[in-house]
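Project standup — Tuesday

K.O.: blocked on the structure for the chain from last sprint. Re-posting the sequence here as requested.
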Amino acid sequence: TNFIRAFKHHLEESGEKYYTGTVTHVAATIAEGNTLTHCRLALRNKKNVWFIIDECSFTSALQWGWLARFRFVGCKFLIVGDFAGQLLPISSQYDAFDYENVEYSDFMHSMVNGLRIDLTEYFRGQDKSHHEFVTTLYDRNLDVHNAVVRAKSRYNTKVEPHYHLVMSHPTRVRINGKVNKRLSESKECVFISTPEIRQGSMVNLPQDMYIWSGLKLLGCVKRSDTQTTNGREYEVTRTTDTQFELRMLHPDGDEDKHGQPFLLTYEETAIRMRLQHALCYYTSQGRTFRDGPCVLHDTKHRHFTKRHLIVGLSRCGEGCDVYIK
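H.V.: unblocked you, prediction finished:
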């Protein structure tokens, strides 16, 4: 993010036009840009402009395909991200694109004119040894089993978790329900029940929730509107007999960048918001956990990979805030 800001400043001083894009709304906010879908429409008649892509490992084969067309008409690219340490797009499960080796492919070489820059300075926290350990997991000769064993031996001090990272939505719902009910016992809260949602209409299903002032929720909408955006974090600032007052939180935690308060009815909150005591690994990408320790679950899950391990460990800036179950 710091590199992107410095690069943008250089482009602005040079009078060059640029667009910043990434796949998710959270990453787009951090990069101070828009989603790739928005940028695709904005750039459809543009030539010879800079296209800055952040969190590049999220990018699907289909998106790389139409980005290459912009390269063909003269657009220039700054492609930023962690190819080996982030989860792949959902489409990687069924398309034939070689995601594992795209970083060193002729395609990527042509997109960036052969220039590669490795960033080595750690900005997420003060624990350099934590960062240095995570970088050892990038070794391609290290398999997921041995990586987990090595990580468990280091992050083995039990903590009182604020976040739980899991592999599946049923596990997310179960842990969220348990933690939310326990925390509500010491709060003055409002209970809202699960709304009726057509089965199969979404994966991240809603659930019963106890809500109180200060609780942070996750936005979950199919289409963003003026109030709620998918994947963004919201804080409940006030409760009334029929409504909740919420504000959108900026991912970097800067109080001056948080959104203005707005109101949602109980029903609207039940549909648009999700508990986030537990999150799926994929949902956590692009975020920094600042509110407390994190526990990594499901390391023996058949779909758990070294990418999940790196993503989970990287959410916290300090190694003392991580425990692997």
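K.O.: great, moving the ticket to review. The mean pLDDT is 88. The first strand starts at residue 18 and ends at 22.
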